[in-house]
Amino acid sequence: MADFKVITSDFVRLHISTSKDDVSFEEKRFPKDITISDLKAKLELITGGNCNTMQIEAYNKDNKHICSLSNNEALLGSYPLDDGMRLHVIDQFNIRNELDFGDVPKYELPEEEYNKKTDSVKAFLMKNKMGQYNEENIKKKEKQMSEEKQLAESTPIGSRCKVTVANAPCRLGTVMYTGPVETLPGYWIGVKYDEPLGKNDGTFKGKKYFECANNYGAFVKPHNVECGDFPEEDYDLNEEI
Description:
By secondary structure, this protein is of the alpha+beta class. It has helices at about 35-45, 95-100, 110-115, 120-125, 135-155, and strands spanning about 10-20, 25-30, 55-60, 65-70, 85-90, 160-165, 170-180, 185-195, 205, 205-210, 215-220, 225. Helices cover about 20% and strands about 25% of the residues. A hairpin with a 7-residue loop joins strand 6 and strand 7 (about 170-180). About 20% of the residues are buried. One of its GO terms (biological process) is tubulin complex assembly.
């Protein structure tokens, strides 16, 4: 019998966020054979955090915590990470957090003075044109948001559709919702699949967006949804195979 191997990419694309709420970054491509120690060094350049003190947590596309990348000697590929997931960097990032001694009053550097500092996170990001200071990325995000909105608004609720997502089989279903989803960026399409291949029942973080049975619902990006004449298949569970 021939041997079959599962071939996966040597790289993984991950979003980056930080514990400083006003800082987030574009999706980055990392090699799976990089150690967590070397990953932290890269994240230090990206986020302005300290690779010696930062902690890294991983979240899936549903914003659910998956694991903590705590072993500096481990390879990135040894953790259950897929394209589109998010690495959350926890660190101090600036001097204000270092002055946190419980109930002891903290000195808050005036914004005008903070803006003059050359060694701050803000100065680092502005100098390297990263995050919210990267005009090209901002325009790219605005264009993407506009395109997502147009696609979502032009997708009829109740229409049949085919969902194609990277590293997953094509799935057929019915469009049940279009629009924003709280806590998630951009616009989304709520789909009720023909089979229990989804992740929810039309509910996300306690809010109900549409009705369907558990594991039949999912929220996907508009560009992954193709509407058309996709008749629902008749799944005969009693058919002999």
